Amino acid sequence: xxxxxxxxxxxxxxxxxxxxxxxxxxxxxxxxxxxxxxxxxxxxxxxxxxxxxxxxxxxxxxxxxxxxxxxxxxxxxxxxxxxxxxxxxxxxxxxxxxxxxxxxxxxxxxxxxxxxxxxxxxxxxxxxxxxxxxxxxxxxxxxxxxxxxxxxxxxxxxxxxxxxxxxxxxxxxxxxxxxxxxxxxxxxxxxxxxxxxxxxxxxxxxxxxxxxxxxxxxxxxxxxxxxxxxxxxxxxxxxxxxxxxxxxxxxxxxxxxxxxxxxxxxxxxxxxxxxxxxxxxxxxxxxxxxxxxxxxxxxxxxxxxxxxxxxxxxxxxxxxxxxxxxxxxxxxxxxxxxxxxxxxxxxxxxxxxxxxxxxxxxxxxxxxxx
Length: 370
Fold this sequence. Notes:
Elements: H1 5-37, H2 41-78, H3 82-108, H4 110-117, H5 121-134, H6 138-153, H7 158-180, H8 190-215, H9 223-226, H10 231-262, H11 267-303, H12 307-342, H13 347-369
């Protein structure tokens, strides 16, 4: 486990940058939850419901993005650049299509969709105010994540981190102004949080576009490459990408069903889930980031046709996954009380949140290895 410097240098350089990026991506939504938690427990719970739809989108989009990485990283290992652009076009179409369908569904019936997740009318109405604005960020988010995945597949991972930091700065600053009515801005509560997040997603997309099309020299991508879809590459992408989209999507659906069950167990249970879900999503980026780093490392090695080294890496990675799961478990348990104390919630809600975090701390070990 300690003899391969290239393996560890490559894995951890990818892992840490992607982990930081993913933590910040989730923190954009977490900032809404925490800041609204000091504003109103009902507002926090409503936004938590709405963010469950965002989480569902992220799971589908991450599947589409990982499908791109799996194929493109192999071409990167062979130093074949043109096919990478063709696969990117396929992933772009898939990501935009899925996010457009979800956006349309949300805009047609926001209360109806959130009503599936909870029967608390006040919380559903609060979440609907938020999601009607947030829906316009879905396609923006999908395009940004596909662009970042493209860069990750050619080992350019820092841009994802920088754009996510930019989005977080925008979101927290605008949340402060628009939720609470500071610095001369009107007090908008839930709507203010949604507007702040939408603007932060736009800033993130603009920064990604500037880097990919004007700064990056690895691929020298052009606008026309977005629309250079070819059937052969699309078929290859579907073959690799659909299982990943299905895997991520099924996990997103499972968590959404869980939210729907919790949403019928009363306001305290909804509030506890609103405290717990974003935190777990942030902690879970440790193992999802190890998966992303593995995709690039293994994909590139497969592209170099070094199968013995692939097998050796697979054994090392399994041990690392268990270590990362154990670290995630410890973080959840250590930070549990500090996390709950941030929110202005009832004692009943706080007690339920502590129980939820205890359970999640155990399950995260299995999720990490999987």
